[in-house]
Specification:
Largest sheet: 9 strands, mixed
Structural class: alpha+beta
Oligomer: single chain
Distance between the termini: 61 Å
Number of helices: 5
Order of helices and strands: HHEEEEEEEEEHEEHH
Radius of gyration: 19 Å
Number of strands: 11
Strand content: 25-35%
Shape: globular
Length: 254
Amino acid sequence: MAKKNTAKEEVSVMRPGFLALADFNMDQTMAEELEGLEGGFDRVKIPAGGATMFELPGDEADEPEGVKEFSAVILYHHPLQQYYATKYTGGSNPPDCGSFDGIMGEGEPGGVCANCPLNQFGSGENNSKACKNRRRVFLLREGELFPLILSLPTGSMKEFSRYIKRLLSKGRKSNSVVTRFSLKKATNSSGIAYSQAQFSIDRPLTSEEQILITKLSEQVKGYSRTVGFDMEEAAEADVPFVDPETGEVIPPLQ
């Protein structure tokens, strides 16, 4: 009996594309293997200052991999808004007010995000917003089983919105294709450079892959509410060097 299971696992790993998901249940695996351990997904990082290399988690925890582009399926994405009343000084404290849907804020002041004065340009330092707006994207690369998280900053939101609209105009959803992610150096009207994410279709999923991806997307959507505001996002939200046009974090020496 044990030999049959082992053989099945070996065949699963060798399947092309995303077909290895046929024998994978994220919720069950996380419950069994990560019980008592620190959970969460690894992250894809976008550099500041116009650099065009993503930072992906490497095989070694302290050795990230720098790549100019990569491909993955967008499993799920949602707005992420956070407001800290005082300057972030470290730790994993949640924001004073936050939102996982970009519609209603929870905390102080709370309420409808669109009407909140803290969600307007000019309410924060350097004419930025006091409430920082990002978009959290859950990704899955071919050959992997656990998703990655990409937190898109303000300056990449417009490109992401255009890409999603292009997909919808063709009757496709973001989790029905493999997306190619890349970066380009953009410059605002003040001459400040920042890194802007770019998106394009790599290939459509096969019908068999789509069934498996849809199942995982539903699991990720349910899990997304348990992924809080982590230290990295909190630190970025309170850096004073913010481009007033894009909301991008700019290095002090830029």
